Amino acid sequence: MVQTGPLTGAEIVCESLLKEGVDVLFGLPGGAVLPLYGALAKYPQLRHVLVRHEQGAAMAADGYARATGKVGVCTATSGPGATNLITGIAGAMMDSVPMIAITGQVPRPAIGRDAFQETDVTGITLPITKHSYLVMDVADIAPAIKEAFHIARTGRPGPVLVDIPRDVLAGDKTEFIWPEQVDLPGYNPPTFADENLVSQAAELINQAERPVIITGHGVLISQASQELLEFAEKTQIPVVSTLLGISSFPTGHILDLGMAGMHGMAHASLAIDQSDLLISLGMRFDDRVTGNLKGFAPNAKIVHVDIDPSELGKNIKADAAVVGDIKCVLQQLIPQVAANVHIDWLRHIDKLKGEHPPTRIRETKELLPQHVLRELAQVTKGESIIVTGVGQHQMWAAQFCGFQEPNTLITSGGHGSMGFEVPAAIGAKMGRPEKTVWSIAGDGGFQMTMCDLATAVENNIDVKFAILNNGTLGMVYQLQDLFFDKDYFATVYSGNPDFVKLAEAYGITGIRVTEQSQVADAIQQALEVPGPVIIDFVVKAVDNVYPMIPSGQSVNQMMEEPWP
């Protein structure tokens, strides 16, 4: 329903969200934000999903945004409500995810007086937001929200916080006036790049004999997967991806080398090491990709394309630093690059694949996490949305789950947040209800946010929850095993719940799998059961992720799985 006449601040928030095309928001009420919740009851077009923890609200908004390409919205009250959003906001900032966080604040006369549940949330979040607003006048709400959405979704996307005191939400009324346009002097996100720089990049590409494309999250953000495919096929240049770049290029394509870096494919990292040109698209040369900067791609020239000029030259100096939107820049590049075959280089990479095979699974009667993810990949055919937290399960999912469509791997990359998978999967399913969504978790990460199983049940959000249950903080254990003299401490869980009984407690189906022969049937059963399902895969307690380039090392120190 559209309200007429003078409106409260809370009603203006709702009207503004409708103007921005918002259809769902994730949140948890509290005193300072209650006026907004009173207004939401008048706006059934705005579906509010009541989470069980504000961290889940931010992460669900994150998952929604990544799955849809739209801005995710979360809400919280002042003080602890707002601070509980911080992990999710920080993750969105690190991974360039468009998000709006709307928080309640104590009334204006109480600000600065250490009032109950008063926190300077705009100050706290300053380093982890693209911008933030403290709205002190009801007439400023609509312009602030208009600007917030514009900033969040344009250029390099990111989270924007809008903090509104309770008396601004519930006090004086004013006419709702939606700004026709945004006027932000100095904020001009780039689109097409300087033609001279594009020509410079094209010349380097045409001269290269051993080129490699590195595709990052920016390709997905700019919806440039089709342009990337056209560019790679015209030039016949192999493609490696960062973790967040996975799904920007089809898994299994003849030019696809998979993920590179710390736990990437050995042949992909070696291809980078032996290349004479890296064409880096929408990626930031983070430490998980580069390892030791001095040893990274020692013989390669660098073409670096990014919409954020601050990323160019930050970690790796580029020979052609091109500022622009990836989709636009690729449209500029494609006509200027020569059709090529790079036959010798591609034959050499095939040799590298033979010498360093893509991920293998050793023969054993034990149930390995790799078995689970291989079966999941076969059943889903790369068409489901896979959502992970951080740890061993994240790396195995990146290695074994194929991805045929853009934005089908959603994971906490830069921030690496355990527990991300449960609420983010809920958000992804809310945004893409037609897709099958799998939450892949370790038993450690799952227990951090499993309270939001209630959110999935209450709203009948059909997420399939797969727990790779090894009773261990696997990645921490692996690091202790390899680099800390096997000093295992605080990494084994002896008090895990019975996850099948937990499912039953929530009134949903729980399945336990202990043997390889049960995996495929369990996955199929979960798909056939309507609504949320938990599968407890009881896997081998200790198993390391390989390949591995130790932190701060180079490809020369790569550790590959020992084979009998």
Describe the structure.
By secondary structure, the chain is of the alpha/beta class. 36% of the residues lie in helices and 16% in strands. A six-stranded parallel beta sheet has the order 2-1-3-4-6-5, with helices on both faces. Helix 13 links the parallel strand 10 (277-281) and strand 11 (301-306). Helix 1 runs parallel beside helix 7 (141-153).
Features:
single chain; 564 residues; alpha/beta; Rossmann fold; 3 domains; six-stranded parallel sheet; 23 helices; 18 strands; 36% helix
Topology (SSEs and partners):
Layout: H1 9-19, E1 24-27, H2 34-40, E2 47-50, H3 54-68, E3 72-76, H4 80-84, H5 86-94, E4 99-105, H6 121-124, E5 131-134, H7 141-153, E6 159-165, H8 166-170, H9 195-207, E7 211-215, H10 217-221, H11 225-235, E8 239-241, E9 256-259, H12 266-274, E10 277-281, H13 287-290, E11 301-306, E12 320-323, H14 326-333, H15 343-355, H16 369-380, E13 385-388, H17 392-400, E14 409-411, H18 421-431, E15 437-442, H19 443-449, H20 453-458, E16 463-469, H21 474-483, H22 499-505, E17 509-513, H23 519-528, E18 533-538
Parallel strand pairs: 1-2, 1-3, 3-4, 4-6, 5-6, 7-8, 7-10, 8-9, 10-11, 11-12, 13-14, 13-15, 15-16, 16-18, 17-18
Helix pairs in contact: 1-2, 1-7, 3-5, 3-18, 11-14, 12-15, 16-17, 16-23
- CATH A-level architecture of the largest domain: 3-Layer(aba) Sandwich
Q: What is the global morphology?
A: globular
CATH H-level name of the largest domain... which superfamily?
Answer: Thiamin diphosphate (ThDP)-binding fold, Pyr/PP domains
Low-confidence parts, pLDDT < 50 over ≥5 residues? none
Which sheet architecture does the biggest sheet show? 6 strands, parallel
Domain count = 3
Number of strands: 18
Give the neighbour order of strands across the main sheet.
Answer: 2-1-3-4-6-5
Question: What is the helix tally?
Answer: 23
Helicity level, as a percent range?
Answer: 25-40%
- The residue-averaged pLDDT reads 95
CATH top level of the largest domain? Answer: Alpha Beta
CATH fold-level name of the largest domain: Rossmann fold
